[in-house]
């Protein structure tokens, strides 16, 4: 399980919520709402003592234990990652020893074979996102946080990622996204941030009621016949 209680900073205010083990979450909100900051707090990239992972305070966990509990996947590769090959990058994803059989399986699953020995700097934005997804699967933490993983994916690749999010390839998932269609289709629990404040935390069905869509998106989106429609 994951729990954060009474976290405050200049960006986030009175943040408290908890997830049961294997309970998945979508984090929504406008740009600048604090979504990425929250993800970094939950994974202790912003150090704190307000988060518990499986009844352990995150501040006292060893690096290896924390890595096995939670993994933060950033929106893009760092400059240092650009100068290694895809296979080298994925070899670094394992918490302990490299499992080459599993690595080969994931490369095949995500159709990355043709990129295996190419440098990451040559990849398109969408290919880099798939590389990050492959890394998360191989890392296999109990909880994986994805920060805007789907932002640069075309429709066919987005469907592949949706299927993986909806499968058991990953354990517990926390997904930051602006893609309401993805959030609606996945049917995960929803957390909505606005100016660093949690304005909604609850089940998928309640969030996607028209009264809440109107409240959180200023009447720009409504649900008609179980489809989300943009009001132009």
Describe the protein.
- The protein is α/β, with parallel strands linked by helices and 232 residues long.
- The protein has a single domain (2-230), classed as 3-Layer(aba) Sandwich (Rossmann fold).
- It contains nine helices and twelve strands.
- The chain has helices at residues 35-42, 63-69, 86-91, 100-109, 125-139, 155-165, 180-186, 204-207, 210-217; strands spanning 2-7, 15-19, 25-29, 51-53, 56-57, 70-73, 143-147, 172-176, 189-194, 197-202, 221-224, 227-230.
- It has a six-stranded mixed beta sheet, with helices on both faces. A four-stranded antiparallel beta sheet has the order 2-1-4-5, with no helix packed on it. A two-stranded antiparallel ribbon has the order 11-12.
- β7, α6 and β8 (172-176) form a beta-alpha-beta unit.
- It is globular and about 50 Å long.
- The termini are far apart.
- The mean pLDDT is 94.
- This is Iron siderophore ABC transporter, ATP-binding protein.
- Belongs to the ABC transporter superfamily.
- InterPro entries: AAA+_ATPase (IPR003593), ABC_transporter-like_ATP-bd (IPR003439), ABC_transporter-like_CS (IPR017871), Metal_Ion_Import_ABC (IPR050153), P-loop_NTPase (IPR027417).
- One of its GO terms (molecular function) is ATP binding.
- Keywords: ATP-binding, Nucleotide-binding, Transport.
In CATH, the topology is named Rossmann fold
* Fraction of residues in β-strands: 15-25%
Give Rg in angstroms.
18 Å
Q: What's the number of domains?
A: 1
The ordered string of helix (H) and strand (E) elements is: EEEHEEHEHHHEHEHEEHHEE
Helix content: 25-40%
Q: Given this structure, which CATH class is correct? A: Alpha Beta
Structural class: alpha/beta
Shape: globular
Keywords: ATP-binding, Nucleotide-binding, Transport
Protein name: Iron siderophore ABC transporter, ATP-binding protein
Pfam families: ABC_tran (PF00005)
Family: Belongs to the ABC transporter superfamily.
């Amino acid at each position: 399980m994951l729990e954060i209680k009474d976290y405050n900073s200049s960006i986030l205010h009175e943040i408290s919520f908890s997830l049961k083990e294997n309970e998945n979450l979508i984090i929504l909100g406008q740009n600048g709402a604090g979504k990425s900051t929250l993800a970094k707090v939950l994974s202790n990239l912003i150090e704190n003592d307000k988060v518990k992972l499986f009844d352990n305070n995150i501040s006292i966990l060893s690096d290896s234990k924390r890595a096995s509990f939670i993994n933060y996947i950033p929106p893009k590769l760092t400059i240092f990652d650009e100068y290694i090959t895809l296979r080298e990058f994925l070899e670094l994803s394992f918490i302990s020893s490299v499992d080459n059989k599993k690595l080969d399986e994931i490369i095949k699953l995500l159709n990355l074979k043709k990129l295996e020995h190419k440098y990451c700097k040559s990849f398109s934005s969408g290919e880099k996102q798939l590389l990050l997804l492959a890394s998360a699967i191989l890392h296999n933490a109990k909880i994986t946080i994805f920060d805007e993983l789907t932002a640069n994916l075309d429709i066919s690749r987005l469907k592949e990622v949706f299927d993986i999010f909806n499968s058991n390839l990953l354990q517990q998932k926390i997904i930051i996204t602006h893609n309401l269609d993805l959030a609606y289709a996945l049917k995960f629990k929803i957390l909505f941030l606005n100016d660093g404040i949690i304005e909604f935390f609850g089940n998928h069905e309640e969030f996607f009621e028209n009264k809440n869509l109107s409240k959180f998106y200023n009447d720009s989106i409504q649900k008609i016949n179980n489809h989300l429609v943009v009001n132009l």
